[in-house]
Amino acid sequence: MKGEASALKAYGLHVAVIGLLFALSFVLPPYHHGLVARIMVLATFAMGYNLLFGYVGLLSLGHAMFFAAGLYGAGLSVYHLGWSVPLAFAGGIGCGAVLALVIGLLALRTSGVAFMIVTMMFAQVFYLTILYFARWTGGDQGLVVPQGSRVMYLGGASFDLTNPAVRYRVALALFAIVLAVVLVLVRSGFGRVLVAIRENEERTKMLGFDTFANKLAAVIVSGTICAAAGAAYALLFGYVGSSFASVQYSILPLLWVLLGGAATALGPLVGTLAMYYVTDIASSYTSAWLLIVGVMLIVGVLFFPKGVLGTIRQRWLRWLP
Amino acid sequence: MAAVTPLLTTSKLSRNFGGLRAVQDVDFSLLPGEIRAVIGPNGAGKTTFVSLICGRIPPSSGRILFDGADITSLPAHRRVRMGIAYTFQITSIFANLSAYDNVALPVQRTLADGRSRRTVHASVMEALDRTGLAGRAHTLAGSLSYGHQRLLEVAMGLALKPRLLILDEPTQGLADSEIENFIGLVRDIAKDGTVLLIEHNMPVVMELAGRITVMNAGRVLAEGSPEEVRADARVQEAYLGVAAHV
Question: Per the domain annotation, does A310 fall within a domain?
């Protein structure tokens, strides 16, 4: 069947990408090694965002709160409660899932511009709450998770997350797992309903689908993935800061996804990678690096309105998921 | 007749939009297996009336019974699950998906268990076959001709395996040859289902409908067989503006 051949190609491509990232860990110089590890975690954040924005068509301007829920959920439980790494990671994810459920129930009563504003307001509340409880959260200074507590014990073996090689592989594992989950999800019946909601919600409802329940499920999955990225960030890089809850970190995943290609499985990685490296290279030459990033985004919108991978899919590779 | 319980009953069903009484105190009942046409001048409240039945619009007052159960306050998607399917007056399809995927959605929902690829495929192709779209399964819905998009809309309705199929002006914009096929299709659907049809094309109405309900200004003006309705002076007045009763 035509569908099965393209599914095979799609899975093959993703396995190849994971393999390439793994191979890179042996050849990258230390600076880039660290940068790519960070990018993989942030690309996971972008994948969570993409699930809601790209596939369901819901534009949230508040996803920083889900990332920060994972970040603080994991970071604070290590810092204050002395939880072990796996437990703190799970705790961070749990925080994000519960927050997503509550925010979803409230924000999904709106749509379109109102949804953007409501999610943004909730994220601001979350941000200000972090600053308000500075005694526990460190306020705008943030907290540094002590190195000693960032060692993961799993079945006799110990993994020191401050070791760059371990850090890279844990980031890659997170990225690969989430990529697989997203891929399976968007190709499933649930994924088809999400796309249908994006394309024509009224019609989807009249085919007997509970669009509210489906959108809520999408918000929860999206928020949970973002929280997983946040929790991983806290444990891998050891810093928990309020800037990750600021509005900037709600806009960034939107830009990464738009640049890489909304509703493509690998778009978030491509977008995050491109933004990070352009910023990195540009800022080594000039202090006006924001100008260069801005020009790149404008050129992107003009010539690749569907993002890099979205355009490639439209023109050449129809099977790209 | 009296022994048959109606599939659908509305009592005193009303809907106001601000001061406008779009539908007023409509008592209506539909027997299983019927092909019923709802006709009336523009603005008579036909689309609002069927939208109340399928749940797209909540009523201001009144009750709706479907198969004996009160569905007045059920959300639309629950009514669809009970077997009420609605095809839109203004073509409403998933333009960026293939015709196949458009129909796969309702099929996927009706197959609660046994979601195997093969069963989905068989049911999708059956619905496309019945509407004559099988050859265009992999065309993007948005690039189908208008007539085919109307048929795709019907195919999506069929794929829900509805007990009551509501068709809102299905032949609007169809060519004469397509209308011929369409009449055959509706007859075929009515063999094991009930059809409620809003239609402006009178030859189609007269040929298909067992009974006709005429609406005017939000109320039911007349109801009966095609012959009775055709002969009704009040209907002529509503349509032609002739003062038939002096």
Answer: no
Q: Do A208 and B88 touch (CB under 8 A)?
A: no
Cβ distance A206 to B97 less than 8 Å, yes or no, reads: no
Q: Which of A199, A207, A209 is opposite residue B156, by nearest beta carbon?
A: A207
- For the whole model, what pTM was predicted? 0.88
Asked if B105 has any chain A CB less than 8 Å from its own CB, the reply is yes
pLDDT band at B115 (very low <50, low <70, confident <90, very high): low
Query: What does the domain layout of chain B look like in residue ranges?
Result: 1-83+162-246, 95-161
Query: For chain A, how big is the Rg over CA atoms in Å?
Result: 19
The pLDDT value given to residue B233: 85
pLDDT above 50 for B72: yes
A116: containing domain: 2-246
Cβ atoms of B165 and B87 closer than 8 Å: yes
Q: Left, alpha or beta for A263 (phi > 0: left; psi -120 to 50: alpha)?
A: left
Is there a contact between A209 and B77 if contact means CB atoms under 8 Å apart?
Answer: yes
Task: Check if the interface score ipTM surpasses 0.90.
Answer: no
| Structure confidence at residue A45 (pLDDT) | 97
Tokens of B156: 């999506």
Mean pLDDT taken over chain A: 91
Q: Which residue in this structure is represented by tokens 């050891």?
A: A238
Question: Which of B189, B200, B227, B199 has its CA nearest to residue B211?
Answer: B227
What pLDDT does A3 receive?
Answer: 58
Domain of A11, CATH number, reads 1.10.3470
CA dihedral A13, A265, A75, A60 (to 10 degrees): 170
d(CA A3, CA A10): 10
Q: What is the CATH number of domain B1-83+162-246?
A: 3.40.50.300
Residue B81 touches chain A, beta carbons under 8 Å: yes
Q: Measured between beta carbons, which residues in chain A are less than 8 angstroms from residue B156?
A: 207
Distance from CA of B53 to the nearest CA of A (A): 12
| Residues of B in Cβ contact (< 8 Å) with A202 | 56, 92
Q: What is the mean pLDDT of residues B43-65?
A: 92
Best mutation target, A1, A193, A206, to test chain B (most B CBs within 10 A) = A206
Q: Which is more confident, B138 or A315? A: B138
